[in-house]
TrEMBL record:
It comes from Butyricimonas virosa. One of its GO terms (molecular function) is acyltransferase activity, transferring groups other than amino-acyl groups. SUPFAM superfamilies: Acyl-CoA N-acyltransferases (Nat). The keyword Transferase applies. This is GNAT family N-acetyltransferase. Keywords: Transferase. Residues 5-146 form the N-acetyltransferase domain. InterPro entries: Acyl_CoA_acyltransferase, GNAT_dom.
Length: 175
């Protein structure tokens, strides 16, 4: 059974292990530095940094933002020894049940087997590609890192407004 435990203090004993996973799982341009992340954990109530525990064992991390009109799913990672235990699937099932409304996430375009598998994984979990023109901003500078796709659990006439809010709140305001 998967349990999400919100980390609200940068001194939480689980955080150091989770930061190591975060740095291992995401390339530098797709993540914040540890100092930024610790500051956001303390100062930004709209950001949810969650430890994932499976049967009482620390198994991963899940970061999302409550943007009031929608949720932005920023990072999901599972420790290597815990992979293939359907932990990510259980997290997606949990949020489908508990985060009512629109949920958006970024995904790399399908260019190889791994990126194709990832997009298909989200499709199997009720997400669809909503925008293929999205340019991800940098976490540190006013530059665009690269093209990603936006996937979501439903269509919205407000998608471009939501994308601009992600860029503003997640990337620009919280450096």
């Amino acid at each position: 059974m998967v349990n999400l435990i919100r980390i609200t203090e940068p001194t939480d004993i689980r955080l150091q292990k989770l930061l190591s996973l975060y740095e291992e799982a995401f390339p530098e341009e797709e993540r914040r530095n540890a100092k930024q992340l610790k500051r956001l954990i303390s100062e930004k109530p709209e950001m949810y940094f969650n430890a994932i525990e499976t049967n009482g064992v620390l198994s991963g991390l899940f970061i999302y933002w409550d943007m009031r009109d929608f949720y932005y799913l920023e990072h999901l990672a599972v420790f290597t020894p815990m992979r293939n235990l359907k932990i990510g699937q259980q997290v997606l099932d949990y949020i489908a049940e508990h985060l009512d409304g629109m949920r958006l996430l970024e995904v790399e375009p399908t260019t190889d087997e791994m990126t194709t598998r990832r997009v298909n994984y989200y499709r199997r979990n009720g997400y669809e590609i909503l925008d293929k023109t999205y340019m991800q901003p940098s976490y540190d500078e006013d530059i665009e890192v690269g093209n990603l796709w936006i996937m979501g659990n439903r269509k919205s006439g407000r998608l471009q407004e939501f994308i601009e809010r992600i860029k503003q709140v997640v990337y620009r305001e919280n450096r």
